[in-house]
Specification:
The protein has about 350 residues and is of the alpha/beta class. The protein contains 13 helices and eight strands.
């Protein structure tokens, strides 16, 4: 019952309340001028989370929590700021070498060595978009929207979230402005090496849909597959790529404020709400990760011999290599060679299952 109402288990909710009440002054209970105690941290956090979970207006809690509309909105604003400041560094982090190794093992077990997630974009309707901005945020004859670009893994953890661009931009325009490859270009990302079909590659990749360009870091499906190998690869790629679509669906199911048209006027506050929902989503994923079964990667835990993917921490970086790395990211020849090797690898791994 508690999880249905608050979208998370009770121990996780109480941990959030306890951390906010100890480190954020707004959530500390104080006496007013009459000497009476004011609202507790539990009341304020409950109001904020229920606004996120149900997308309701602030005046819904005047009887349930004895909060007025303006106080509920203030609780939401301070809650989003507190969550981002206290938990953002941990739950919006870039993958560490240990995280990357786990993602690579997971991708290899699913037939895609070197794959670390799926990337796609989601649009969030902005109902109260200022009239002067509607042309910038409206595509065609639709409603104004704001774009979220995200990278997600099989367990629905969102590793990258880039939000705030107008809805008139498509996925390629968002990619041109996105910081998704900044760590690689600036030399902060760990080194990755993996083998596919006896060929060695040194740059991980994402699974995408057909709109993304033919770069070495993107692998799309085959639009018109010819032959059993291409058909099997297209089937596996399209099913695996749905991880990010599932993450968007679960995010909207947990937090109806993201599913419904946003009523906030201030774009900066909208960004804070989206970032808070992503952080809470990742916290829930971490809390419930042991409750369901993912792809079995136990074959890689016994030793390094059965693992074709390896991750090493980067010790040094030459700024003069940035242009070369950028060219490697966008190399279409490497893309074609890697895609052909993946087609063969998927056929060798899963081709006999249909017989």
């Amino acid at each position: 019952m508690f999880r249905r109402r608050f979208r998370m288990n009770k121990p996780l909710f109480l941990r959030i309340v306890d951390r906010l009440s100890n480190e954020v002054p707004y959530f500390q209970q104080r006496r007013n001028a009459h000497g009476r105690y004011g609202l507790t941290a539990l009341q304020k956090c409950t109001a904020a989370i229920r606004i996120l979970a149900y997308g309701q207006s602030g005046d819904m809690y005047d009887e349930y929590l004895r909060l007025g509309e303006s106080t509920s909105r203030l609780c939401l604003e301070n809650f989003t700021n507190g969550i981002i400041n206290l938990f953002g560094n941990e739950y919006l982090r870039r993958p560490t070498p240990e995280d990357l190794q786990r993602l690579l093992d997971l991708g290899e077990a699913r037939g895609f060595p070197g794959m670390i997630g799926s990337i796609d974009c989601m649009h969030w309707q902005w109902k109260n978009c200022p009239t002067a901005w509607k042309g910038q945020y409206t595509r065609g004859s639709g409603k104004p929207t704001i774009v979220l670009e995200a990278v997600a893994s099989q367990d629905l953890w969102i590793w990258h979230a880039f939000f705030g661009l107008p809805g008139t931009l498509n996925d390629i325009n968002v990619l041109d402005r996105s910081p998704v490859f900044d760590d690689i270009l600036q030399g902060r990302a760990p080194k990755v090496k993996f083998k596919v079909n006896n060929h060695t590659y040194r740059m991980a990749y994402y699974l995408t849909d057909g709109i993304y360009p033919n770069w070495a870091t993107f692998i799309q499906s085959i639009r018109l597959p010819q032959g059993p190998k291409a058909e099997l690869f297209a089937e596996r790629q399209e099913s695996t790529r749905k991880d990010v679509e599932r993450a968007f669906g679960v995010l909207q199911a947990r937090f109806a404020i993201v599913k419904n048209p946003v009523l906030v006027w201030d774009k900066e506050k909208i960004g804070q709400i989206m970032k808070t929902c992503v952080i809470l989503h990742n916290m829930i994923v971490e809390d419930e990760r042991g409750g369901y079964t993912l792809t079995d990667t136990s074959q890689f835990e016994s030793g390094e011999t059965s693992r074709s993917s390896k991750v090493k921490s980067r010790t040094s970086f030459n700024v003069g290599n940035m242009l070369g790395i950028r060219n490697d990211l966008r190399d279409s020849e490497k893309h074609d060679r890697l895609k052909a090797d993946l087609v063969e690898n998927v056929w060798q791994k899963f081709g006999n299952e249909d017989e």
